[in-house]
Every structure is written in C-alpha cells, then in structure tokens.
Amino acid sequence: MPLVPIQRLTSLTTNVVTAANGAAAFALALSGAAPNVVNVGNAPGIWPELRKFDNDNTVFAAAPDPQAVWSQAAFIPGETHGFAAASITIPLTVGIINDFLIALTVFSDNAVIANIQAFSPLGISLFPVPGLGVNLTAGSLDPNTGLTTDIAPPYNWQKVRFYSIPASLGLISVALSVRFIFTFQVTNYFTTGAVNTAGLSFAADIYQSSLL
Q: How far apart, in whole angstroms, are the C-alpha atoms of residue 140 and residue 143?
C-alpha cells in the first residue's frame, strides 16, 4: 500500500514540553500540557542546524525548520532535562492493518536518549508496536563525559543523529486514533571551555499506509 505523508513535527516553542526527566516530559505531552521551552537558537554560533532543502518539493515543505530549544535561557553545566512532543491525532482505518513509517533526525548538546511511543488520545498504550518504545542513545548522559572521553573532535554535539522505523499497529477492529509521542532526555556536559551552551532540535516525518 502507498504511504501518505501525515505530519512533519519539528521542535518549536509552540509544541515541546520540558520537565526534570524524560518520563515527566512524556507525561506532560500525553496530557496535552502547554509548551514551556525557550528558543536558544544557534546559541554558540557553531552548532549544526537542522534545515530543509531550499527547494523542498514535498507536502512537508511548509513545516517550520526546527528551533533549538532548552528549558531556560541560562545554561547550567551538568544539568539534564526531559523534553517531549506529540504528533497530531491520526485516525486509524477499521478493518485493515494500519502501517506507519517514522523518520527522526535529532541534534543535541551534548547527549540524548530518544524514544518514540504510540498512544491513543485517551492515554491508552497501543503496544505492542515492534520497533517503538526503544531507547535510542546518542552518547552517555553522564555529564562528566565532557571531562573524560568526549574531549576531542568530533564532539558528540557535532553529530546529527537520524533514525527511521516502520511501525505497524496491526488490524484495527474498532474506531481508534493514535498520537506518536517523541521523548528526549538531554544532558549538558561539564567542559573546560569558557562557553557551555545546551540545546535540542529535532524533526520527525510521519507517513501512514493508504488503501488508495
């Protein structure tokens, strides 16, 4: 079956929530809590920026480029925060196997654990969904890593991570819908440098199978 583009979810101050850890941020996103992050932009002036192609010819072209977000404007070395964002609510088709494809791209300063989960709007888990619910790691969350092993280029903040996964919710026999919750736990390393900024940016493209 062909795949239909559903949404490009990008990190913005209008859709990301933050909390003390990933689990708390996930709970906020699932409950529909108001966004509470700040846009730190390209804070040190040397971060890679996630940007669409100038001539993006997909239906996602109108989606804003990701912002680099953080919990507060003042950076604190060694801190860890959780972040989360929810996709739009996507109706599922009764009587067929509902398949999705999700492509995720993430930048973090310095390290991140990312997770994608599928939930109904009522907060009911739609597991088991093979491939989802897995902690995707990009560096160690130990803030001392910036003083021990992550001390030479390419630093972990120079690495943009990407991941794609097919997600099948199986044969749906009752009218349901789904939201995908994207959760991140990010650590800002201790460093010996004078500048120690922190941030997270991401883009997630969601496609759904179609009978057309």
A: 8
pLDDT in tens, 26-38: 999 999 999 999 9
Tokens of 68: 């680099």
Per-residue b or e along 37-63, where b marks 16 or more CB atoms closer than 10 Å to that residue's CB: bbbbeebbeebeebebeeeeeeebeeb
| pLDDT exceeds 70 at position 212 | no
Which residue is it, tokens 């699932």?
Answer: 30
How confident is the model over 186-206, as a mean pLDDT? 94
Cα 164 from chain centre: 12
Question: 174 exposed, middle or buried (CB, 10 Å; 0-12, 13-18, 19+)?
Answer: exposed
What pLDDT, on the 0 to 100 scale, is given for residue 79?
96
Hey, where are the domains in the chain?
9-91+110-158+178-203
**Beta carbons of 146 and 110 less than 8 angstroms apart:** yes
Q: How far apart are CA 159 and CA 109, in angstroms?
A: 9
Q: How far apart are CA 35 and CA 18, in angstroms?
A: 8
- Residue pLDDT, tens place only, 88-121: 999 988 888 889 999 999 999 999 999 999 998 7
pLDDT at 1 over 70: no
Contacts of 9 (CB under 8 A, 6+ apart): 15, 63, 85, 87, 182, 203, 204, 206
Nearest Cα to Cα of residue 181 among 38, 17, 51: 17
